[in-house]
Amino acid sequence: MIRGRIIKVLSGFYTVQTEEGALVCKARGRFRLDGTSPLVGDLVLCSTEEDGQGRIDSIEPRRNRFVRPAVANIDTLIFVASGVNPVTDPFLIDRVSVIAAEAGCELLLCINKADLDPADTLYELYSKAGFRVLRTSALTGEGLSELREEIDGRLCAFTGNSGVGKSSLLNRLIPEADAKTAEVSEKLGRGKHTTRHVELFSLGEGTCIADTPGFASFDLDMMPVIAKDALAEDFIEFRPFLGRCSFRDCAHLAEPGCAVTQAVEAGKISASRYHSYTRLYEICDRPLYETRR
Ligand code: GDP
Ligand code: ZN
Questions:
Q1: Least C-beta-crowded within 10 Å: which of 38, 72, 83, 127?
Q2: CB under 5 Å of ion ligand 2: residues
Q3: Residue 231 confidence (pLDDT)
Q4: Domains identified in the chain and CATH numbers
Q5: Which ligand is closest to the CA of 277, given by its number?
């Protein structure tokens, strides 16, 4: 038995990165029967058959799993934002921060295009809320070694609005990624970012980055299934105040004696983050079709 991580799936063949190199495997038939087909990001045990064909025998329990893109075990979602061209709406960051919290992964905020704009407002807002925040420039290379350090040993995926520099950062970190995505789009013939194709690029020492199709992927698939009464927990800086409201079932909206709104008034929670909470509260709990764009 060899342990490894699935880094690529194409036409029913799984490429598993093991300590001894990459092994192309087929999945055992029973995965299809019980509905747990292997995903990119899965840690698996595999073996080699007599004819040299690799075979996936079992999948280790997952930390999390995303539907679009289909990828498992993300440790860190890197939200790439930008203060200019385009300006990132904090609400986008906040909804992804909720999705990350629900999935049990960390959100790292990467403020790109720092050569054009340091985005002080975003930087302060999210540092104060308790997130790790970095400034980078895919153009000048500023902050890229810090980014590498921050993601060391983790499986990461970039997300963020279009045009902020996700592909540029990926290509700076992994020069061969560019060639590979171009090659794939040529084969599949439907543009650079196809939602079906996910591939992990290795930076060595267990660090992997998923080449994913961007923002929408980590967005609406999960938002509607978040329970209203779980939402406040997903705002990391609200946590110290939870359980201190006058009403045990406080929704932190307009209730008297609410520790969360008092913290907002005292400047301990930012008005911007709190406003996102109230907007997201409306979206939670609803059936999928109502909130899907
Ligand atoms: P994506 O849609 O998030 O993948 O964004 P791209 O990587 O395609 O970048 C969008 C545009 O912004 C391209 O024209 C890039 O050359 C440019 N760009 C990306 N990163 C930076 C940066 O750090 N600084 C500057 N000045 N331009 C950048
Ligand atoms: Zn409250």
A1: 127
A2: 245, 250, 252, 258, 260
A3: 95
A4: 2-61 (2.40.50.140), 66-211 (3.40.50.300), 228-290 (1.10.40.50)
A5: 2
